[in-house]
Amino acid sequence: MNQSHPPDASHAEIELVQAALDAQAQGELAVAERLYRALLEADGRNGVAHNNLANLLRESGRLASAIDHYRHALEWLPDSAPVRSNLADTLESIGQYEAAEAEYRRALELDPANAAARYNYGLLLLAAGRYAEGWPHFEARSAVFREHGTLPFARWNGEDLRGKTLLLLPEQGYGDTIQFVRYVGLLKARGLAKLSVICKPALVPLLRTVQGIDALITDPQGLQVHDYWDSLLSLPYRFNTTLDSVPAPIPYLGVFGNRLDAWQARLPADGIKVGLVWQGNPEHDNDTARSLPHFSALRPLWSVQGVHFISLQVGGAEAQARECADQQPALCLGDAIRDFGDTAAIVAQLNLVICVDTAVAHLAGALGVACWLMLPRRRTDWRWLRAGMRSPWYPKDLYLFRQGESGWPGVIDEVRDALAEILRKRG
Predict the structure, then answer these.
(1) Which of 67, 113, 141, 253 is a good FRET partner for 394, with 20 to 30 A between their CA atoms?
(2) CB-based contact 266:291 (threshold 8 Å)
């Protein structure tokens, strides 16, 4: 979070800070950096300039320098919760988790209403597997993202559901809905008369296979009053989920037979069939880190004989696979995939899915199909924890490959070796 100016700033300092903020907002980072450094040359005690420059440095990946400037900012703004929260987030990015937690705690002592600090602290706790501590802080995301408007009926906070109606609202991406729809069974077991779920049209054919959902709503204009509403992402909190109590009745998603039949004819009849997804949603704030730069990065996998590779990538990225067809032949199906019902029908007939952190990982996991998930080194999503090769959310069929110092090439080499070992064992 950037700051405008200290209360005792001169008119000239205020103008310089504003000019730097404007340049930063317009993506002119070099200009903004030059202005901040000019301010600090004139007055090294300008905590706001230190903080804002640190934010810019963090954005450009210069994390060590960012931390230095956050610490300088705190010399002059020791009671600034936003600066401490910024420092905590950056410390977490480089793996200094204890120091990051201390800064988050101090930020929240200074400003308990700081939703961003509380939400990010929650993510830190969840990534450490400290679910009981993390879920209450994770609830601050509603004030950070404000995805839900005001509804004319009460939010569910654990009240008796016997004979009641409940509406579940989605948040964030497709993968979040797929992951947390598993709680439908627990809700229905409490005696609900009707359970409705708002979702995007692309998810409808998939969610129709979930036992316990009574209505799927794609048009908010047709929304009817329910006794209660809640967010899908709040259900782990409502049910006091811990690492040992994640509801995992896998598979909890299915595929309609007509979809299976339609795609079976397009898939190879024999051999090992492996689905690939190498890029996620480009709008995601960590997409640069969690997506592969190009389909060609997967080329080492083609050294393994006896594998049919199938692209599940939708959108423009699948063109990369066609560009590499000579060296990396793959069956490209993305252009014909209409929705998640189609993707599920393909995935259900594969031996394995290899993908980056995107919705297809959750889909494969929820269907009970083997999935190898390639994770970035920094800012790994909380649900995959900080270490380990297994996930409590998909404990049997999902295997985690974590990026190390060698970056994506090292991960892909590990995946290649694991794939070759499977083929070797199969003879």
Answers:
(1) 141
(2) no
In tens, the pLDDT along 376-413 reads 998 899 999 999 999 999 999 999 999 999 999 999 99
One-letter amino acid for residue 360 of the chain: V
**Rg, the chain, Cα only:** 24
The answer to whether the beta carbons of residues 185 and 211 sit under 8 Å apart is yes
**Cα angle for residues 274, 277, 279 (degrees, 5° grid):** 160
Dihedral sign computed on CA atoms, order 232, 234, 240, 241: positive
The answer on pLDDT for 308 being more than 70 is yes
Q: pLDDT per residue over 97-155, tens digit each?
A: 999 999 999 999 999 999 999 999 999 999 999 999 999 999 999 999 887 778 899 99
CA 242 to chain CA mean position, Å: 19
Nearest to 384 by CA among 364, 366, 361: 361
Domains in the chain with CATH codes:
11-141 (1.25.40.10), 154-238 (3.40.50.720), 257-426 (3.40.50.2000)
pTM above 0.90, yes or no: yes
CA distance 166 to 405: 47
Query: How far is it, in rounded angstroms, from Cα 134 to Cα 221?
Result: 34
* Structure confidence at residue 29 as a pLDDT band (50, 70, 90): confident
Comparing C-alpha atoms, which of 12, 21, 83 is closest to residue 47? Answer: 83
Asked whether the beta carbons of 233 and 180 are under 8 A apart, the reply is yes
For the ranges 12-26, 47-61, 266-280, 392-406, which has the lowest average pLDDT?
12-26
